Amino acid sequence: MTNRITLCLAGFGNAAQAFCRLLLQQQQYLYEVHQVKVDVTAIASRSKGALFDQVGLDLSRALEEVAHHGMFSSDNPQLASLTTLGSIQQSHAQVLVELSTLSIENGQPAIQHIEEALRQGMHVITANKGPIAWDFRRLKELADQSGKWLLHETVVMDGAPVFNLVKETLPGCSVISFKGILNSTTNFILEEMETGRAYEDAVKEAQRRGFAEADPSLDVEGWDAAAKTSALLNVLMNGNITPPEILREGIMKISMEDVKAAQKKSCKIKLICEGWLENGQPRGRVLPLLVEKNDLFSTIDATSSILSVTTDLMGEICMVERHPEIEQTAYGIYSDLLTLIRKTSK
Ligand SMILES: NC(=O)c1ccc[n+]([C@@H]2O[C@H](COP(=O)([O-])OP(=O)(O)OC[C@H]3O[C@@H](n4cnc5c(N)ncnc54)[C@H](OP(=O)(O)O)[C@@H]3O)[C@@H](O)[C@H]2O)c1
After folding, report:
1. Which of 243, 205, 211 shows the shortest CA–CA distance to 224?
2. Which pLDDT value is given to residue 2?
3. Which residue intervals of the chain are DSSP H helices?
4. Mutate to test the pocket of ligand 1, among 14, 66, 100, 304 (most ligand atoms within 8 A of CB)
5. Which helix (H) or strand (E) segment is 104 a member of?
6. Distance 238 CA to ligand 1 centre (A)
7. Is 253 tagged catalytic?
8. pTM of the predicted protein model
C-alpha cells in the first residue's frame, strides 16, 4: 500500500528550491523503495507569495515561475493569500519543513513556525539553525510531548550527518568536547589572505562568489559560527545555551601581518569553534587560532568544513565535508525526510 506524506514549506529560497528539485528527482525512488508519495501542499515565503493545494502543488511550475519572475505568478491556480502561520495552520500537512531566513538575534519567526506546527500535530524538519541554537531544549520537549519528530541534520554541516553520527552510530557514547571549522565565508577569506589578498578584497570576492551576504557581519564577526556551536552544544551535549553565551571573536581584526607571522611559524589562522564541559556544564567559544600546517584542520580549504567530536568511549572522530554546494543542503533536508519515513513507518 502506498502512503502519502504531505509537506508545508516555510521559505522558498535557495535551500527550499534545491530540496524541491531533489524531491522531483527522487519521486520514483520514494514510491518504489519506500512506497511513499510525497506531496508539498503549501509553500509560504516572505515576498514571492504563497501556494496552497490539498491535492499537492505543481512543484515544477513553482520552480519555473520563481526562476523566471522571482515570484509565484498571479495566474497560478494554486496561489493563496496566506501568511506563513496561516499556511502552517491551514495546510493540514503532516510535516513542516522550516527553511526561512536565519535570524541570529533570537531565532524568530522560525521558532514560532515550529511551535505552531507542533501544536497542529505536525512533525518538523528544519535547516534553519536559529531554533536549534536558541530554543532547542524547549522545542524538543514540545515535540516529545506531542509524540512528533523535530529533525535538524542540516543546521551545522549541510548534508554531512553530524547529529546522526552521534545519535545513530555511536551507541552508549557521550560527547565530551568538539572542535570544528564551520563557517565557509571566514575560511575562504583567511585562505585568500594567505595568498596575499587584502581582507576587504577577500570579502568582496566571497560576496561575488555568492557565499557571503551583502552584509557579511554575521560571518566575519563569528555569529554564524557561534550559532552552530550553540546548536552542537544543545543537541550533542544536552546544553541549554544561546549564541550570545558563546565566547566569540571574529576575524575582522586579523591583519595581513598576522597571516604572514602565522606562515613564518608554519601555521595557518583558522576560525575555530569549540565546545567542552566545565564543571559538568557545556561551554563554547569561537575564535581565530593558529593551526599547524601538518594538522588535518589546516587542509580544510575554501568552503569545506570539519567537525572533530571527542567521546568518552570511542575517542576522537573527525568528519570533513569537501566543497559543499546547495545540493548537499538539499540532501540534508531530504535525509531528514527519509529518517521521518523510517521512524513513522515502524
Ligand atoms: N543555503 C544553504 O546552503 C544552507 C545550508 C544550511 C542551512 N541553511 C539554512 O536554511 C534556511 C534557508 O536558506 P536559504 O539559503 O534558502 O536562504 P534564502 O535563499 O535567503 O531563502 C530564505 C527564504 O525564507 C523566506 N522567508 C523569510 N522570512 C520568512 C517568513 N517569515 N515566512 C516565510 N518565509 C520567509 C524568504 O522569502 P522571500 O523569498 O519571499 O524573501 C526566502 O524564500 C536558512 O535558515 C539557512 O540558514 C542554508
Report:
1. 243
2. 72
3. 14-34, 59-69, 84-90, 110-119, 129-145, 154-157, 162-169, 184-194, 199-208, 217-220, 223-236, 256-264, 326-344
4. 100
5. none
6. 27
7. no
8. 0.96
Ligand 1 pocket: which of 20, 45, 84, 328 to mutate (most atoms <8 Å of CB)? 45
Question: For residue 88, which amino acid is it?
Answer: I
Measured from the Cβ of residue 176, the count of other Cβ atoms closer than 10 Å reads 15
Q: Which of 228, 293, 343, 346 is catalytic?
A: 228
Tracing cell 560576496 back to the chain, one arrives at 207
CB 118 within 8 A of CB 139: yes
pLDDT digits (tens, 9 = 90+) for 124-180: 999 999 999 999 999 999 999 999 999 999 999 999 999 999 999 999 999 999 999
At 196, which helix (H) or strand (E)?
none
Q: Distance between alpha carbon 299 and the CA centroid of its chain, in Å?
A: 23
Residue 288 has phi, psi (to 5 degrees) of -75, 130
User: DSSP secondary-structure letter at 209?
Assistant: T
Q: What is the pLDDT of residues 57-68, one digit of tens each?
A: 999 999 999 999
- Cell numbers for 46: 516572505
Coil, helix or strand at residue 320: strand
Which residues partner with 126 through β-bridges? 98
Residues 286-316 as b or e (16 or more Cβ within 10 Å = b): bbbbbbeeeeebbebeebbbbbbbbbeebee
* DSSP state for residue 323 in the 8-state scheme: S
Cα gap 9→317, rounded to integer Å: 34
103's grid cell = 535570524
Residue type, 70: G
Q: Which residues of 14-34 are buried (b: 16+ CB within 10 A; e: fewer)?
A: ebbbbbbbbbeebeeebeeeb
Contacts with 57 (C-beta within 8 Å, 6 or more apart), sequence order: 39, 40, 41, 42, 43, 51, 78
Residues 134-165, buried b or exposed e (16+ Cβ, 10 A)? bbbeebbebbeeeebbbbbbbbbbbbbbbbeb
Strand 95-98, strand 281-292: pairing: unpaired
Q: Give the distance (Å) from ligand 1 centre to CA of residue 28.
A: 27
Q: Which residues form ligand 1's pocket by a CB distance below 6 Å?
A: 10-16, 44-48, 84, 99-102, 109, 127-129, 154, 158, 326, 329
